[in-house]
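During the reporting period the student researcher (J.K.) took over the structure-prediction task from the postdoctoral fellow and processed the backlog of single-chain submissions. One of the processed entries is reproduced below for the supervisory committee.
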Amino acid sequence: MRNSLYAPTPEETNLSGFKFFKHLNDTEIGKLNYDKTCQLYKKGSVIYREGTRLTGFYCVTRGILKIYKTGIDGKEQIIRFVKGGDIIAFRSLLSQELACTTAKVIDDAVLCHIPYPTLLFMLQNNWKFSHWMIQILCRELREANDYITDIAQKTVRERLAEVLLLLKDSFDVDENNVLQIALTREELANMVGTATESVIRLLSEFKQDKLIELKGRKIRFLDIPTLRRMASI
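J.K. obtained the following structure tokens:
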């Protein structure tokens, strides 16, 4: 691995546990480790911005980031949150288009940058990896189609229930059923696609209905089956 500005721990630069690279052979893994550049990013750091030219994609080994688009009025539309084990920025890289989203750190993170030529090498020399990449892209396209359908057909109440359950699946809960990611009401609203005031009102209703408990930004699940029915999942 080449030198970087910061020095994350060896565990934080280890990509062996990434499902994304499961089809690479020892030679390809060796090239990946040599070409990668890993760095620590503090909360609030922007990894890349919408409209910029990317030189590679990123592997998140620690921390949490939000991926979002900016609307005409400057309002964020959060596409998803990512955590350790996830990859970002590869779709725009493959299409050789400008970045279509912005990635911002919301919990101190370590990311490893993989240059575009390294990705091309893996795609051109390993058909299993190429096929796996196509599967990932198709899955993300399906998720995007599902999101468009939700926006068109589900109420804000249904979408909020679904977002809470998606966050639970992505970030899990502790022994007390408390969601292991703390988001602002504005961030929740930007993910649901509605006004912050609407999310505040609906969270209060969920609390009154004993579906969740609220303590600041912390959300505790009390009745997951009812939330699933509400979200039509």
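The committee noted the following: Strands lie at 37-41, 46-48, 56-70, 76-83, 87-88, 102-115, 212-215, 218-221.
J.K. will present the remaining backlog at the next meeting.
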